[in-house]
UniProtKB/TrEMBL annotation:
GO MF term list: phosphorelay sensor kinase activity
Modified residue annotations for 4-aspartylphosphate: D61, D467
Gene3D superfamilies linked: 1.10.287.130, 3.40.50.2300, Histidine kinase-like ATPase, C-terminal domain
Coiled coil: 128-172
Keyword Lyase applies: no
Full protein name: histidine kinase
Principal place of residence: membrane
Sequence ranges assigned to domain Response regulatory in this UniProt record: 8-129, 418-534
């Protein structure tokens, strides 16, 4: 069994003698009670310790210069991770009822008066240490239970798949059974063609033309197998949120035009009337993933349109969106299927001949990739044999030609970007400022949006962390004004918000932010995002 980490006790006292006396007293019982003792000489140092460690209990001196015990306790409990740490206030004075009330309002669980009676201190500390060890034991048991549940779930899923494979022909209405049958069919067809072509090459007397045709068959079918595997892996990553977008400003019409040229060059559209009407529209997106979206929509239209049919591809801007439309004159979509065309493994036909082929995951991947970009996709059809239209909408950005020599901002004396923090929560702003300062950043803080705009013009930071829920003007308006002002338009902008849905991400990016972080933000993630964001061009 893995060893449980020892509980930690933090002693905070500005007086060196008192601090030494308390830590030495606690150290006498440390081995017996299996805990560690850490010390801090000020409220600020205590906050840094809380950022790095979890504590079973904190012994906090009330009377300290600068940040006193009450302010320190309030700052500690303002942070979600440390909100539940029990605090015992230590004071040299007999607290009256008002002092006690104030202490309890700031999260105190008890008082100790100096001189501290060792037996009383031991009794109180032992309770919290035992509680911390019990909580850690419960967490460990919960993790073990979760791991066991995961193992049992995986075993159950494996058994379920084995049962479904044996009985798939009797249970064709079950979505997973249908998918397994389609996957087997889609893999066996190209494998059979590759095997036959390889055997043909080895036959004596085969003509040179026959060998060349066999090689082309092997190449074509191998590419088909690769596309199947890529679709499966991409869908898995997309559904689990593991796809990371490499965003750049781009003209969607040019990307779609390239996809259409590729489609024509490969002969996939030879038997179709493929027309295009492409108007420029700039978006902030990952070119590789957007090509994937476009190709899947084109493949879907061609797959379900009989030879001789028409496929129309258009792009245009509409209000705050850039729109891509793919319309075909194919088999259409039945009314009962239309609400489910973007669900995983759904196809218009599940007959055994499988004339259309495919795994039924392309449109699911399109929807997920569109959502990751802050956009969306819709399907329309008047019914079977009346064609269908798929419409992709992406947030539009204003395109600006990049300057020939981008201005290089001066970094702080530590070699790190200068940061502006706009946060209306006093404790959160103070904690974030101290934390960033402790990591070597030169930080300017502002308590609301208007003050933040003034600070941005006065201090010219490299990067701004902007809370969305600000009084007066919100974070969206702050970003729009910073981007509109030539003096501040090159500042990198990172949004801090409590909401992480696709719609929230879309609004953040439309306002002009470069990145979007959901609270609470992990310190390592924040440092990585700040440093990464500072190294890439400003989003235009």
């Amino acid at each position: 069994m893995p060893k449980i980490d020892k509980p930690k006790i933090l002693v905070v006292n500005d007086d060196a003698n008192s601090l030494f006396a308390l830590t030495s007293l606690l150290a006498q019982w440390a081995e017996q009670e299996a805990y560690e003792v850490l010390a801090a000489r000020s409220g600020q140092e205590a906050l840094r310790q809380v950022l790095m460690h979890d504590f079973a209990v904190i012994l906090l001196d009330v009377n300290m210069p600068g940040m006193d015990g009450f302010e320190t306790a309030e700052a500690i409990h303002a942070r979600a991770r440390s909100a539940d740490i029990p605090i015992i206030f230590i004071t040299a004075f007999l607290a009256d009822e008002l002092d006690r009330l104030k202490a309890y309002q700031h999260g105190a669980v008890d008082f100790l008066f100096t001189p501290v009676i060792p037996q009383v201190l031991y009794a109180k500390i032992a309770v919290f240490v035992a509680l911390a060890m019990k909580n850690e034991e419960l967490k460990k048991q919960a993790r073990q239970l979760s791991q066991r549940t995961t193992e049992l779930t995986a075993t159950n899923q494996r058994l379920t798949r084995e049962i479904e494979e044996r009985k798939s022909m009797e249970r064709q209405n079950h979505a997973k059974d249908e998918f397994l049958a389609m996957l087997g069919h889609e893999l066996r067809n190209p494998l059979s063609a590759i095997s036959s072509a390889a055997s043909l090459i080895g036959l004596p007397g085969v003509s040179v033309d026959g060998v060349q045709r066999a090689k082309k068959i092997i190449q074509r079918q191998s590419q088909h197998l690769g596309r199947i595997v890529d679709d499966l892996l991409d869908l898995s990553r997309a559904m689990s949120g593991k796809i990371l977008l490499n965003r750049v400003p781009l003209d969607l019409s040019k990307l779609v035009a390239t996809a259409l040229e590729t489609c024509r060059a490969t002969g996939r559209s030879t038997d179709y009337d493929l027309v295009q009407d492409l108007d420029a529209g700039w978006i902030d997106g990952d070119p590789t993933r957007l090509e994937q979206i476009t190709s899947n929509l084109l493949d879907n239209a061609l797959k379900y349109t009989p030879p001789g049919g028409r496929v129309e591809v258009r792009t245009w801007t509409e209000n705050d969106d850039v729109v891509l439309s793919v319309r075909d004159t194919g088999v259409g979509i039945a009314a009962e299927l239309l609400p489910h065309v973007f669900d995983v493994f759904v196809q218009g036909s599940s007959t055994l001949d499988r004339s259309q082929g495919g795994l039924g995951i392309g449109l699911s991947l399109v929807r997920r990739l569109a959502e990751l970009h802050g956009g969306g996709v819709e399907a329309e059809s008047a019914g079977e044999n009346r064609g269908s239209t798929f419409t992709l909408r992406m947030p539009r950005i204003e395109h600006q030609v990049a300057p020939l020599a981008p201005p290089v901002s001066s970094l702080s004396e530590h070699g790190k970007p200068r940061v502006l923090l706009i946060e209306d929560n006093d404790d959160g702003r103070e904690m974030m400022t101290m934390m960033l300062g402790g990591y070597g950043y030169d930080v300017t803080a502002a308590a609301d949006g208007l003050l933040g705009l003034d600070a941005a013009r006065d201090h010219q930071p490299d990067l701004a962390l902007v809370d969305i829920g600000l009084p007066g003007i919100d974070g969206y308006e702050v970003a729009r004004r910073l981007r509109a002002d030539p003096a501040t338009r090159d500042i990198k902008l990172i949004a801090l918000t409590g909401y992480g849905l696709a719609e929230d991400l879309r609004r953040v990016m439309e306002a002009g932010f470069d990145r979007h972080l959901v609270k609470p933000v992990d310190i390592d993630q924040l440092m990585e995002v700040i440093d990464t964001c500072a190294q890439v061009p400003v989003k235009q």
